[in-house]
Amino acid sequence: MALTPTLEGPLGWQAPFLAALACVVLAVPIAAAGPDAREAPGGDESGFIRLLGDSRLLRFAAVQSAAFGLTIVLSNWIVTLLSRRGGYSDEAAGLIGALILVMGIISRPWGGIYAHLRPERSRALLVAAMALGAGSSLLLGFAPPIALAVLGALLLGLAAGAPFGPTVAALGRAFPESPGAAFAAINTYAVLMIVVGTPLVGLTFSLPGDGLIGFAVAAAYWALVALAVPDRQLAALAGLDRMLEARVVELHHVRVEPAGPTQSSREVDVDDVESAGAQPEVAGGDVDHD
Fold this sequence. Notes:
Number of strands: 3
Strand order of the largest sheet: 2-1-3
Structural class: mainly alpha
Radius of gyration: 25 Å
Number of helices: 12
Shape: globular
Order of helices and strands: HHHHHHHHHHHEEHE
Strand content: under 5%
Helix content: over 70%
């Protein structure tokens, strides 16, 4: 996005298409050298169409449609909007637009790390990301001075990338039998947003405001999604993570002390203890739960 405007002079309207083709040529050998990503047999992918209408999935699809789909739509038109409405040069507008994608790449792992460390805050993270998306989309729609435009691009990129980690983790909990199909399903909605939204936002450049209406509608969609962020699955994710952490601590602390100097201590499997319905006993020894 940052380089394409500089190629418009020598290449004309073909610049974005040739730049995309060059990226594909560079990506093919990298993809070919990667590991085999085929899923292990046994997954139930036959119900993909049914999965698209699953009520548990639709709210995650709305989040992904905004964070991924709508961000791509706005990135496609940000250079045109800043150039027409704000008088930016194509190079400056392209650099600002590229910040959206760069920040989206950076914020993806950050969102996953945050959700892992604070799983109980996953829903708050998603709501905050949707609110940031709404505010930054509207800000960019006004083609503000360059400092505010850079800020808006950074915030939009943050809103695009941060939801990825908690969304994928929650999908894995909600659809343990087919997490890959669930993620593919929400991406189907995101791609639909790109295919439908890109020309619709483009049409708003023929209306008063030079694209402001399209960016304002996008901001409204972000805000609506903030009200529909899933709650139950994310709460279950936080509860499960806390339960697993407590389980690990318990397993590390339950030990059987030796009865004498010749007997070494050994760890007790808590599952065995609980299934037996009694505390473990060792002749002459005590159980230390501290």
